[in-house]
Amino acid sequence: NDVTTRLDGKVAVVTGAGSGLGRQHALLLAKQGAKVVVNDLGGSVNGVGGDSAAADKVVAEIKAAGGDAVPNYESVATQESAEKIIKSAVDAFGKIDILVNNAGILRDKSFGKSDLKDFSEVFQVHYWGTVYCTKAAWNLMNEQKYGRVIFTTSIAGTSGNFGQSNYGSAKAGMLGLMNCLAIEGRKNNVLVNAISPGALTRMTGNLGIDESFMKKLDPAFVSPAVAWLASERCDVTATIITAAAGGFGRLHYFETKGVQFDPSKPITVDMFDQQFDKINDLSTADPSTAGTEGKTQERLDTLSA
Ligand code: NAI
């Protein structure tokens, strides 16, 4: 079986790879055989400042381990600089096969107290950064008939978290992008998936937990999922993989069986009210009929039958 999890001959860009999760992703992709662009503008957790040392250090680590890597210090947060990130892969290694959109910042504050300027800056890095980098790589990947794009979402987006309305909405927004791009890229072997990680990094702080548990939340435990999603072995698209402390799962949303009223007659608020418990009953949701083949489609099918 020559379809492998190895990445020999592949070229990867990891954004925000100067620390935390991105650093571990870059190290593992390189270990698996990929040539890696280590992108990081080297700012603070809040997205202030910049320093080339962060990316340089990780490049040195990869080289010391016998791998191949180049640094890039551009920000993901403008279209022009994101294009330069992807161009640096093409310039250094001739192509781009793998894009891990990982760069991120935090501006946590409850919605009532938050400044919408923070909202737009968080969106600029997480959401637009993902759009810009993916857009710059997209046509190249589709033309060469190989591409693996990995987004980094968060439980703050998929389930919500106090004080993270800006971050959570950017993280959920990218899932809509993932779902649509997965459909557009599939025919060209360009697969678009997401990880929803959990790890102790400078972004999370140490969360006040004891040292032995801290070790279990090593960001290195997330990276095997990323390396697999980057490989030829990956045959899924539009899939969200949760990864934390050595635990992995798949996260998805499903529609309930719901109700079907007769649409040739008026449909009233009372009718909806009387059936709401049934509409809302998640125990009737069926994982085998997700997405565009979901329950809405099933109900439409019963009408047209
Ligand atoms: P981190 O702060 O250690 O790493 C983020 C990196 O992104 C930093 O090195 C930073 O310099 C870089 N960066 C920030 N803005 C950038 C820009 N405009 N252009 C290029 N690079 C930029 O944090 P961590 O935890 O490793 O976060 C990585 C990703 O994982 C982020 O997208 C974060 O939102 C996500 N995440 C992390 C979780 C965790 O438990 N640590 C949970 C859920 C999501």
UniProtKB/TrEMBL annotation:
GO terms for molecular function: oxidoreductase activity. Keywords: Oxidoreductase. Residues 10-206 form the Ketoreductase domain. It comes from the Bacteria. SMART domains: PKS_KR. Residues 283-305 are annotated as: Disordered. Residues 295-305 have a biased composition (Basic and acidic residues). Belongs to the short-chain dehydrogenases/reductases (SDR) family. This is SDR family NAD(P)-dependent oxidoreductase. It comes from Mesorhizobium zhangyense. The lineage of its organism: Bacteria, Pseudomonadati, Pseudomonadota, Alphaproteobacteria, Hyphomicrobiales.
